[in-house]
Amino acid sequence: MIAFENVAYSYGGGELLSEVTLKLAPGSFHFLTGPSGSGKTTFLKLCYGDLLPTSGRVTLFDREVRTLARDDIARMRRRMGVVHQDCQFLDHLPVAANVLLPLSVSGRAGSPDDLRDLLAWVGLGPLAGALPPQLSGGERQRAALARAVIMGPEVILADEPTGNVDWDMSLRLLTLLVELNRMGKTVLVATHDMNLIRATKAQVQARVLRIAQRRVTLAGADL
Amino acid sequence: MNAAPPVQRPRGVGGALVRLAAGLREADRVVPPAGASAWLTTFTAAAMAFLAVFALALSLAAGRLADRWGDALARTATVRIAAPADQVEAQVAAVIDVLTTTPGVAGARALTPEETTRLLEPWFGPGLPLDRLPVPRLVELTEADPGYDGEGLRLRLAAEAPGAVLDDHTRWRRPLANAAGPPRVLGGLSIGLIGAAFAAMITLAAAAALAANAQVIRVLRLIGARDAWIARAFVRRFTLRAAAGAAAGAAAGTLAVALLPAADAAGGFLTGLAFSGAGWLLPLALPPAAAVVAFAATRAAAFRTLKELP
Fold it and tell me: Bridge partners of A14?
């Protein structure tokens, strides 16, 4: 589904990631952890084609990302749901319109019933008409999650989805991601919150990837 | 979460225009409402269309003037007879005889002394003692269709009436017709320059709008929008603004042209700027033309800018 083969990525001369080789199998649940600035967001950007590796190969859905045209990248992203750290909303559109955007850009019509069900699932039913700046941090993250899953993606990538929310809301968001994984979605969550990882591992068979010293390694059972 | 199947839509440039006309607004609303730049685009389109109406009117009027001068001078010619007083009448008769038997000449008649006096009045004033001056007699001929052979007629006149000189106004007609040519070309050139300036302005405005909305474009790219879909939002907006502005400008320009004082009263020799006949319909072409220019300019600018973005 997503495969890295000896991937390296450099920012302006400094190497951030090096010799990364891994595969995310369909239906798996992974955490990606590491200290702030270690390259978690960069890793995720490589996963959805926002960055190209400096060397090595990134394969998305069996296609090498470097060979993809711009329109191919766009089509690939429709098969992935991404929850960005800063949510990336269009602030002039209400929550419902933001959630429906992936359908709009792919030329599909959304069903009002499906939208209502989805917003209820993330607990935002009454806020469908609110503008993103009017939402709290947790509400924004849940709206971002709703937008990420509206296309029925095969992969869900979440970048620090609990970064700005309290513990209860963090657990609630992770529970939603676990539910999606049980529906067969591949989930990768970047977080530096070890307590959250431990709490989630009680619910789902999750593997933990750790970024340290530019390498991505599989963490041990101590987590 | 189960999405409906993709909506079938027409493809290609024609398809893009169809979608634009059909008013599919989902792409349009993702771009935040603009402020002053929207009004500037509309105002510039209006100003350009207003100027284009005048350039169009100038071009058409110049063409009309050239045709009118050419036609008026080409329809008639004169034969000037300068001969000793005792031979004048005989040569006039000979000239008329030659003319009436010349193929391509519809008619010929000698100007009366009163008509000759009126012709000379602008230069010599009233009360000209024509009988005491050696003024040549004039014979006016009207050309048929097809016309006569000028060189052949000159040779016959030289043989039958040695004092007769055919003046077919070629010397006058050619410079006049030539003089009307440059304004006509200038009018066409002005329309071309207005169109080019308009395209450049729309390109700059579209590029500015794209730069101002870089974050919106980034979000759209991240959720899987293709460049064509993003471009459509900007293309639709600029095309509609340009068409609306050009419609207002063309209407104002046409009204202004209609209100210009007529110059036809100046002896039928000049012409006003006003359109004539079907010419009044030409300004109707300006809004669609502006829309097409805006569509092409914005589309090109959008794709160029989007390709530079990640």
Answer: A11
